[in-house]
Amino acid sequence: MKVLAYAVLSTLLLGVPASARAGDGIIDLTNLANYASQDVPAYITRNNTTAGNAITDLGATLGRVLFYDKRLSRNDTISCASCHQQAHAFSDTATASTGVNGTTGRHSMRLINSRFAQEVRFFWDERATTLENQTTQPIRDHAEMGFSGSEGDPSFSQLLVKLAAIDEYRVLFAMTFGDPAVTEARIQRALAQFIRSIQSFDSRFDEGRAQVANVNTAFPNFTPQENTGKQLFLAAPNNGGAGCAGCHRPGEFDIDPASRNNGVITRIGGGTDLTNTRSPTLRDLVGPGGSSNGPFMHDGSLTTLAQVIDHYNLIPGDNDNLDQRLRRPPPAGTQSLGLTQPQKDALVAFLQTLTGSSVYTDTRWSDPFDEEGRLALIVFPPTQVVIKKSAAANAIVSCQAVPGLSYQLQASTDLADWNQVVTTLTADSSGLLQHSVSLTGTRFYRFAYVVP
Question: What is the per-residue pLDDT across 434-447, written as a single tens digit (0 to 9) for each?
């Protein structure tokens, strides 16, 4: 066992702070980021959180580390973030993302606002029944992260052994779940919490929506073109609109779970695929600078919003799984909206108002590792330990630590040899760590954290 960090105090010195340094590659577990209590606009009501796995600051912090850790791939080169990049709304600018043994079969879907949807299934073909189920499938995939247990790959159980041998993970799992055991279910829960925490509600659309009674009202912060595009988006084709909201419902702009194929049927590398019936939210289709956050559709075949609008303006062909709402007139024929160029431009202008800003730079969702792939955890804060006299010969020693983690209290008379006073002392739900100590003689005390 080894001590990661400690705070020393005595009857002579009121406190010596735990050492800490600012910079990349450090997570302060005594001062967790706010993932669980983020502000969400009142008009956002859809939530696909799996029962029993609500977002917690502890779980999302562990999930963030897992999401960015390349050690979750067989050769330590690929992480979840390799294909889902914060700079691009957690997508990839490449049509197919690079894995350890090849490339992905579909374009990497944007993960932004994944929680705020009625749809509970994930992947373009909806094969994952929950986000939790989705999170470890890329890790188990031979081409993506390589713990498939086939084609010469190590098994997923070998990954669990690998992670369990890493000090940081024993601390993080103990902090989150009460003990250091690393299991697939726990990895899934933590990754899902982190992904669901990624939200973007500071767009120009949100600024305008907050100023009006309903989404159909003209937004005072929009240009005439943007308001025209909004009405085209909302109105049904038989009412002079484009009907976009029939499948992509504001203000989440999530996909209707009943949606079917949208007429894009090609497969990356060639062939046909009619199984793609899911899509990410339409929020943050482009970045703050206006550039696309990667190509659009499961095959990455459309590279601009103008091309996307052209596709829906005139669906190029029928197929057995085409969504009925893309047939004109139903039940036969394919959609031909007859949009003019100014109307197409207005729709593009409106879609660009759905882009936020802070999600691209917020450190809560950024890479916690330093440039060399190292990570340090602070288990004591860089503040002084407090000692308060409680009786003639006794005092209460306390400091702020990590809720749920267990520490040791040790004593010394010379600051060289230390003896355990309390072997297991658990910080309470607020992170407070305290114990009664003797004030007789010259004695020094320290709290110590020992890796489970």
Answer: 998 877 776 777 88
